Amino acid sequence: MTWLFVIVVILVLGAGFAAALGLLGGLPEAEEDLRPDTRDGEPSFDVVARGYRMDEVDAQLQAMQGEIDALRDEAALRDQVGQGDQAGQRDEIGQRDEVGRPEPSGPPATAGADGPA
Questions:
Q1: 23 in any annotated domain
Q2: Cα separation, 55 vs 59, whole angstroms
Q3: Residues 19-56: pLDDT tens digits?
Q4: Which of 20, 34, 82, 90 could bridge across to 59 with cysteines, CB 3.0–4.6 Å?
Q5: For a pLDDT cut of 70, what percent of the chain falls above it?
Q6: Is-contact 80 72, C-beta < 8 A?
Q7: How many independent structural domains does the chain possess?
Q8: Is 64 contained in some domain?
Q9: What is the rounded end-to-end Cα distance, in angstroms, of the chain?
């Protein structure tokens, strides 16, 4: 009975050793998560010994550059549409104030003598 116990222990230790060396098949490669965490809509990077993780920062900069390029393309398209509208007519983009809100099309609302209703 003791010999059986010794053989089982040796087999279990051998299997554990083989698994630790990866001889029984390896684990799949882990995919790197390059997306930074966000807090209140702003990116939050992992802090490491010498600053932020460069791969996270590079991925965020690349994503932001893509957004900038898309906005530039959209602005160029708007400029092309606006050049065809030299008579002062409103194009499909519409009139906007300096903050980006649509301007009202009717006469401005005024409060009565006793204040707003």
A1: no
A2: 6
A3: 888 787 776 776 776 666 777 777 777 777 778 788 88
A4: 34
A5: 64
A6: no
A7: 1
A8: yes
A9: 97
- Whose tokens are 């409103």? That residue is 90
Residue type, 17: F
Angstrom distance (rounded) from CA 81 to CA 93: 9
Tell me the residue range of the domain where 67 lies.
Answer: 53-83
Asked whether residue 110 is assigned to any structural domain, the reply reads no
The pLDDT value given to residue 7: 94
Identify the pLDDT of residue 52. 79
- The answer as to whether 38 is a domain residue is no
Q: What is the pTM of this model?
A: 0.37
Whose tokens are 């009975």? That residue is: 1
